[in-house]
Specification:
Number of strands: 7
Number of domains: 1
Structural class: alpha+beta
Helix content: 10-25%
Strand content: 35-45%
Number of helices: 3
Largest sheet: 7 strands, mixed
Mean pLDDT: 90
Order of helices and strands: EHEEEEHHEE
Radius of gyration: 13 Å
Length: 97
Amino acid sequence: MQVITVQEFCATNKVSALSSVRVNENGYPFLTLLSPKFEGGAQNIYFSKSVAMQVKVGVTPKELGLKDYVIATTTNAAGETRLKLSKTQYVNVEDLF
């Protein structure tokens, strides 16, 4: 599993905008990221199971505090690669002082 910060992911993929938290028809929360690098110009990234119960529909990326999140590349039971938003277990040293 690869893990990078949301900031790194956005910079690498030239993300220009992020949606507020939305849910799909099954109730799974996600963010939509806009970038010309994504097929169709947008990519939905779902929250990990551990975080999904903590986020609310309509919360903005700023309100989420995305600096505390990472994007992990995972493999689901069907063997498909997926991106997941998850909270980091680490604190940036610069934020402590």
